[in-house]
Structures are given as structure tokens and as C-alpha cells.
Amino acid sequence: MSRLLAALIILLASATSAAADFAFSNVQGPHGVGLTVRQMYDYSRVYKLRVDPITGAATQGERARPMQVLGWYPTRRQGKPVTYRQYMETIATEENFTADAQAVRNATDIWLASQGADPSHGAIAKPMWAVRDAPALPGKYPVVIYAPSFSASAAENVDLCEYLASQGYVVLSSASLGARTRSMTIDLEGLEAQAADIAFLIATAQAMPQADMNRIAVVGFSWGGLANVLAAARDDRIGALVSLDGSLRGFPEFVNGGKDAAKYVTPARLAVPLLYVARRPDTLESINQRQIDTRFNLMNQMKYSDVYIVTMHPMTHPDFSSIHLRFAPEREFEEYSRDEVALAHSWTARYVHQFLDAYLKNDTAARTFMNNSAAANKVPRHMLTLDVRRGDDTPPTLETFVRTLGKEGFARAIPTYDALHAKSETFRLEDSQINTWGYQLLRGGRGKDAVEIFKLGIHIYPDNANLFDSLAEAQEKTGDRDQAIRNYRRSLELNPKNGNAVEHLKALGNTAGAQP
After folding, report:
1. Which end of the chain is more exposed for a tag (fewer CB within 10 A), N or C?
2. Mind listing the pLDDT tens digit for each residue in 163-188?
């Protein structure tokens, strides 16, 4: 008997009734669910090394990043749905797009056995909601990207993904891969690789006729619930974030502005509504014993976002994955039964749905739901607690600044800038940025607005000779000769070698202050 077969027999002999007892209790929404599985490459990124990391032999085949994308979308309720096993079969082809059907079956059997599940168990063959390649319903639907947990598959939370699609969302997911290997890595490179995968999935959605690219959210579990924060800080098209017990808490060093952090993750760039669904709280003693640093919490810094923190008391960290709930042995369920945890998992999905409806569909009833008490929403007693924080809707960003000037006029540039800078010292315009902006306005025939931007420049940088020169040029072109002369002369005081100022003063008939 082979060692592999013997190991599988031991696993099967010790298996519990995995996958038999999990029940996703939420009712399917008004739509049927279609499913696509697409195998693509992100040719903008190299994935495989030049040599095989195990054998040292030269790498064969495509080296670009493999992206197996699972997509769920609204359709009519018709057709034969896929089974749960068919979802599990996609795990075998996450990196290898050339595996034949028999190889996929064999790999899936081994994977299921490794989870303590009998591959022939009826629950594995249970029909789900989705129908493979079903015709899409006409219309436009918001886009949700699902980011799996550390090294997990795109099929990690298929129940949630199907549920959202049935409620009128286009949902896309791909496996959590490391930057260069199948295994994710606990570092910024790994996080940014998954954030780039989210960007790739958004680009993939662009080609889907159903996808409304003006309404995008990212739902992430664990590590994926930290990667989606990086993605949102880089892409303001992402209009809502959901973090299922995300690593915002476990790995704050990647978002706290420190030496290992992504410096672009700032409260001002995260003016995005956030739903954080947390597991049962740790005790102070366990936090102290594990030496967890609690001095920084990004959610407490998100002053410009509406933040909802829902704590699910029956759930531990793995319980946010429906794969885990299907295959976890009974011994993992202690104070709460598998059924109680499964019910909390289903309520988590309801809160995700209502949050997305509130912020992507602007649904009044969903807003009310999110602001209700648990009792008002008829949540079972003692299941969850809710903490709601309202954000300031004027984050100190360039977009806020420009939008305000567009509404109130460029004459408000200095007081508007000062107010935003007082909110956060990180909001600061560079002198070169101001100079370029002013000349763009000037060339666009908006000389008076250019003058106001250059005035802002010398307000921020009172010793910058170039900005005084630019202001003078804008004033000269708008007919304010006296102010132009005054500011050319000030530019010369700051930089006596400014030949441009000398020439313009001569042209204006005033050489006072010009250097020989």
C-alpha cells in the first residue's frame, strides 16, 4: 500500500460528518445566479521565476501571473446548478490551466480527503444556486470583488458570493496567491500583490456588459480584508469596503505609517464607508499574553468614513469561511454549536448585503437596517453588537480642494487650503504642483483663476522666487501691470539671477530692481 493511500485512509477513517451539517440559512434573492470560470494571465506582472523553485530546472510555460477568475452574476432561475464539488474542483486549476479532467478529479479527491471529507459524501454533491454560463440578465448591477484570506481559494466563500449575485450584484474573485509563489507571504509585497489582483478583477469587470463600474465594492476576509484597504487607497472608484475579521487588527504595521507600511494608506485616502465584521472579542489577558500591540488601530483613524463594526459573538476567525464551516470537525465548536455558528455566518452575509445596498444602491431601507439596533433587525439575542461611527465628509484631499474651488470660486483657494491643512498636516501641495496647475489654468484661458492659484503658492512658499515670477506673469497677462511689476521685483529679490523677471520688467517699462 502506498504511503499516500495509507494517509488518505487514515484521514477518511477519522473524518466527521464534514459538509453534512453546514446550512446557509439565507433565502436566495430575486435573481437566479450565473457562474463563469475564466482562466487568464496578467501579463503586466511576472509570476514564475526563471527556474523552478523546487527542482532548479528552467521554468516551462507561461511566466505571467495566472488569474483564474470566478464570476457570479444575476440571471433567470433556470438550468442545472453546479455542485459544491464542482466549486472545489476549481482549486486544482488555480495555477495550472492545462490540467485534464482526470487530473482535476484526482487532485480534488486528495484535497477533500485532506480536509477529512469523504469525496463520495452526498453533501459534496449538493447542488448550489449557480448555473454555469447561464445567460446574463439585461441591466447594470454594482460590482463586488471578493478577496480571499491568506493563500485561500476563490471558492472560499461561494455561499456569500452566490447570495450577493442573487441580490443583484456582479461578484468576481480569484485565489490569494503570493507575489511569486502559490503561497501568500506575510509582507507588504504579498499584500500589494493581492491588491493588484483586486485591480485586475476590476479591469476584468469593465468588459462585462452587466457591470456598473460607477458602483464598486471590495469584500475581503482576513488577509483579503487588509489587501482591500490598500486597493481602496490606490483606487477611488472603490466606493465601499467590507472586512470580514480582516487583518487590519492583526497586522497594523502595514497600515500605520511605519517603516513596513504602505505609506499611501492614510485616513484622507480612505474616505470610504467600511463594514468590519469581527469575531468574538479576545480577553485583555490573551492580548497581553500574545504581546499584541494595540496602540494603533486604523479604524479609529478613519475620521472621514462611516465605519460600522459588527462583532459576531458566536464566531471565531475561521468561521467567516464557509469552506471551514463545512469541513471543520465537531471538536472546534465549543461554547457554540455548529448550527449556532452557521446561523451567525448567515447573519454576517445579511449585514454585508444590507451595507452594500445602503452605500452602492443608496437604498433607504438598507440604511435604516445598518443604523438599527440588533433587536430591531430581529437578530437572535446575544449574537452581535454594533458600533457605528460617522465620518466627516470633507477629507483633506486634492479632490476635496478642487471640488470646493469649483463650487465656491478660486478666490477661496487660500482659506480653503488652510482649513484642509489644519485638518491634516499631510495635506500639502508641492510648489511644482502649484506652478504646473497655475500655468494649465493660464493656458486654458482662466487667467484670473491662475492668479489665485499662484497667490496660494506664495502663501504656502513665501520665499519661492519661481512662484512670484509665475504670479507676476499671470497678473501681466490679466492686465494687472502694477501688481505684475511688484511681484517680478520680489522674485528678483529672492533670486537675482532671474533673467525672465528682468526681461519682463523691461517690457513693462520698469527696470527698478533689475540687475546689471
Report:
1. C
2. 999 999 999 999 999 999 999 999 99
